[in-house]
Amino acid sequence: MFWISAALHLFSSGRVVQNNCNSNCCAYDLLEKKVNCDRCCGYIIRYTPHIGVSILFHLLGCYWATQFFIACSSTVIAGSVASYYWARGETSPEIPFRSVVSSMKRLMRYSLGSVALGSLTVSFVESIRFLLESIRRKLKVSTHVPDSWIGKAAYQSSHCFQRCIEWTIKSVNRNAYIMIAITGKSFFRASAIATELIMNNILRIGRVNVIGDVILFLGKLCVSLSSAVNAFLMLDSHKYKSAHNKISSPLLPVTICWTLGYIVATLFFGVVEMSIDTIILSFCQDSEEHGTAQYAPPLLIETLSDNNEMQRLTQGPQ
Tens digit of pLDDT for each residue in 14-69? Predict the structure, then answer.
């Protein structure tokens, strides 16, 4: 609400100026019953350079703050889940009683600057993506490729840059926060470590991500459909079929409940998805440091590792 009120004040600070009338645009005014040529050219809002800079700074600052809170929550979740993995399971006394609070304390003490730098980087990258999209719209290449070689080059380059930016935000950004929580490194160093781990374990991570995405999508769909079914059953009762509570059609309320259920399920399953990514990267980091995953529980080793490694760990030294 603070950001919206400040944005409204900034956007309403301009000066309303009438456009120049270079052509005859007179029209007949029905109220005055005469031809009026005074207000037929329209108006525009002109901003001073200081107001324009303030608007850009406000928009970038709002997006930076939003990304900062998202990054902090992701790092806290990753830190609490990583403490479970690196303490060898839930029965270990090394796991803090309040793992989320402990992860938040580590974030505030050691990783706040890295998270702020990462969120600022994402804000600049998203700004570049927005500018590229504006260029695409101005060149009218969103639906077809221009005939000139300049337009084709601009279309291909902007499309390539947008794909790179989208991959950076979706993949490197999330994994970087996970590695910040695990290793305590800076944002760029954590991004490099996460990228190296993903490239070295691309098949293992890809297999888990594909199966996990399908299961998470089915979970979101089940939760949202359950909300819609419960809403329909509630509206189908006698209470909403008579008197002043009567509802003519349950379509709109059921649709709203389905949408809200899907949004809430997406938020909750986002925590599960972040936990899965943290466990996988922790397993890969453990394997890179020790050759074999020494901190992973047996079920995780059986799922992500080869059968030979599982046999060596369960049988022990010969």
Answer: 777 766 665 556 666 666 677 666 555 666 777 888 888 888 888 888 888 988 99
Cα-Cα-Cα-Cα dihedral sign, residues 183, 189, 195, 197: negative
Q: Which pTM value belongs to this model? A: 0.72
Q: What is the dihedral of CA 179, 181, 184, 187, to 10 degrees?
A: 50
Phi then psi for residue 315, to 5 deg, are: -85, -25
134 within domain boundaries: yes
Torsion of the alpha carbons at 69, 187, 273 and 262, rounded to the nearest 10: 30
Selection from 79, 82, 173 nearest residue 125 by Cα: 173
Mean pLDDT of 277-301: 82
pLDDT at 142: 46
Asked whether residue 17 falls in the same domain as residue 54, the answer is no
pLDDT, average across residues 278-292: 85
Q: Would you give the DSSP letter of residue 42?
A: -
Domain that holds residue 136: 47-309
Q: How many domains does the chain have?
A: 2
Residues 12 and 149 in one domain: no
SS3 70: helix
Same domain assignment for residues 13 and 150: no
- H-helix segments, 139-186: 149-167, 173-183
Q: DSSP readout, 44-91? A: EEE--HHHHHHHHHHHHHHHHHHHHHHHHHHHHHHHHHHHHHHTTSTT
The pLDDT, as a whole number, for residue 297 is 76
- Asked whether residue 241 falls in the same domain as residue 194, the answer is yes
Are residues 111 and 39 both part of a single domain?
no
| Domain limit, last residue, from 13, 29, 46 | 46
The terminus-to-terminus CA distance of the chain in angstroms comes to 66
How far apart (Å, rounded) are the C-alpha atoms in residues 72 and 53?
A: 28
Per-residue pLDDT tens over the stretch 225-255: 999 999 888 888 777 777 677 777 788 888 9
Judge whether residue 312 has pLDDT over 50. Answer: no
SS3 call for 250:
coil
In a domain, 316, yes or no: no
